[in-house]
Amino acid sequence: MAKSKVFFTDLNTKPGNNLTDKLKHLIVSAGAGDLDYKDKFAAVKIHFGEWGNLAYIRPNYARVVVDFIAEKGGRPFLTDANTLYVGKRANAVDHLWTAHANGFNYLATNCNVIIADGLKGTEYREIEINQKHCKTAKIASAIADSDIVISLNHFKGHEMTGFGGALKNLGMGSGSRGGKMEMHSASKPKIEKEKCVSCGVCVKNCSQKAISFDSAKKASINYDLCIGCGQCVAVCMFDSAQVVWNEGAENCTEKISEYTLAVLKDKQHFHVNFIMNVSPNCDCWGHNDVAIVRDIGIAASKDPVALDVACADMVNSSAMASGSVLETTGYTEGKDKFNHIYPNTNWKSGINHAVEIGIGNKEYELIKI
Questions:
Q1: Residue among 249, 244, 86, 243 nearest 160 (CA)
Q2: How far apart are alpha carbons 306 and 344 in whole angstroms?
Q3: Which of 16, 14, 32, 10 lies closest to 301, judged by CA?
Q4: C-beta of residue 113 within 8 angstroms of C-beta of residue 79
Q5: Contact 161/251 with Cβ under 8 angstroms?
Q6: Are 41 and 268 in contact (CB under 8 A)?
Q7: Strand 268-275 vs strand 148-154: parallel, antiparallel, or unpaired?
Q8: Could you give the CA distance from residue 175 to residue 129 in angstroms, rounded to a whole number?
Q9: Phi, psi of 202, rounded to the nearest 5 degrees
Q10: What is the end-to-end Cα distance of the chain in Å, rounded?
Q11: List of residues 6+ apart from 369 with CB closer than 8 A
């Protein structure tokens, strides 16, 4: 198999050639203009950042991509799906507030924001993929219904997958709340009865009639009927229906790759990784720690697998940043930085699985722009 092309630009600038100019030149060089945008709905998949976290991608960069798509006759929209955990992005009302507060509003980006899986994370399309872990994938409807997927990804560490890049943003990020539960858990949900207020919303929304009230008027799950769809987790507003967080990291990364396959199935797509503010944790946290390396640059490719591998190589070949968690935990230069921070993760398993199921190629040619 021929090597995939990954295009890269550093962050050096000069008058008349600022970072937004360089981003546009990068995506054009990498082939973003090869896609047919005319009258197509283009989902620009991005992470809006949890409230309090400041490491997420600047809205200015999203504006460059949005304007490029619009110039080509496309219909771009910025999008992400609701989170599984309880925070400022667990439902569309809070999620939209967070996106706008973090700068992803029409004034800054010239684009509307659509929360892809609806008000409570229950709007999805079930896409057949027939893979090792997942026969179908629950993909947020606005992303599944789009014609084109453009991913803008903040490349950083992640406590479950080692790092988060294109595959993480596409796979985990595009799953509905039920889809996210499938990736995170090998078990069916549980009920924390002390938190149950007996509202009956989970009973009403269970498609399998697996939830009923016990003698104490608390929700109870019949596991013989439960299929683990996660709908109760999505609709419970009191954190009573909960995920059993027991999926191994390796299985999780492979499931993310399978969900990425579902997202990209029968779609035109293109991907950009921002290797800056490389924080040790995901942007889902309400804070961000010192970056583990200096800001490196921006990379783009039609192949999300090669893109992630190239970015991991660039981070691992860079010197650790002073004051970062690497320095304070005895990191030795030359070792894998992500495996050092999260020794129980194996990011290569997700990459290898993505190659096996035909998403892309981990062999790449780095072309500097």
A1: 249
A2: 23
A3: 32
A4: yes
A5: no
A6: no
A7: parallel
A8: 14
A9: -65, -40
A10: 24
A11: 7, 8, 9, 22, 25, 26, 29
DSSP-derived secondary structure for 42-63: EEEE-----TT---SPPHHHHH
Q: Which residue has the tokens 């892309």?
A: 360
Region of residue 350 (phi > 0: left; psi between -120 and 50: alpha; otherwise: beta)? alpha
* DSSP calls for 97-147: HHHHHTT-SHHHHSS-EEETT-SSS--EEEEE---SS-SEEEEEHHHHT-S
Sequence-distant (6+) residues with CB within 8 A of 313 are none
- pLDDT tens for each residue of 162-212: 999 999 999 999 999 889 988 887 768 899 999 999 999 999 988 789 999
Alpha helix ranges (H) inside the chain: 19-29, 59-71, 92-101, 106-109, 141-144, 166-174, 177-184, 201-205, 231-235, 249-264, 304-316, 325-328, 337-341, 347-356
pLDDT tens digit string along 272-312? 999 999 999 999 989 999 999 999 999 999 999 999 999 99
Closest CA to 90 of 287, 243, 250, 248: 243
Single pTM value for the model: 0.88
Contact 295, 277 (CB under 8 A): yes
Residue 121's Cβ-side half-sphere holds a number of Cα atoms within 13 Å equal to 30
